[in-house]
Amino acid sequence: MLRRMALVIIAIIAVSIVTDHSTGEEGIDMGISLRSSVFEEGGMMPDKCSWRKGNMSPDLEWANIPEGAKSLAIICDDPDAPGGTWVHWVIFNIPPGLTGLKEGIPHGKTLPDGSMQGTNDFPGTGYDGPWPPSGTHRYYFKIYAIDKVLPVKPGAKKDEIETAMNGHILGQGQLMGRYKR
What we know:
- Helices cover 14% and strands 27% of the residues.
- It has one domain (22-179): PEBP-like (Phosphatidylethanolamine-binding Protein), CATH 3.90.280.10.
- The relative contact order is 0.22.
- The chain starts with a helix and ends with a strand.
- The longest helix is centred in the first third of the chain and has 17 residues, at 2-18.
- The strands form 2 sheets. It has a 5-stranded antiparallel sheet with strand order 6-4-3-7-8, covered by helices on one side. Strands 1-2-5 form a 3-stranded antiparallel sheet, with no helix packed on it.
- A hairpin with a 7-residue loop joins strand 3 and strand 4 (86-94).
- By secondary structure, the chain is α+β, with helices and mostly antiparallel strands.
């Protein structure tokens, strides 16, 4: 009996090791790569991206957008904020043919390419960078490929975007940077 139980445990471990973990919850493809030239995954974000020392959104570049995407969305938030997750940037209805965003996207609800920006937790429209009250915080830039153009107005909040995306996400990816003042 003990031997059979050990074999079952070994089989479970072996399956978990070889299982493809490229999909997230509900089978969403996690294959979109997201990167920036100003910080690496898990690296420190430069001061020019911080709220008080430049407040410039980092450049972002992505690849492997799934076929059928009609729009992209990016949400940046800080799960280490004292009062709970703090939203720094919501940008959506990004044309799926783009392969990135340049550094320093201006504030404003609608951009020339048709992308729309939502309301962050400062509150403001567009990107507002890190300025943690203490310690080092993590900032997650999450990209979503969506099978439709989101039917929400510019200035929408994160929860409105997430509700509109629900059931329509074809793929996603993320990039995490850190900041300490």
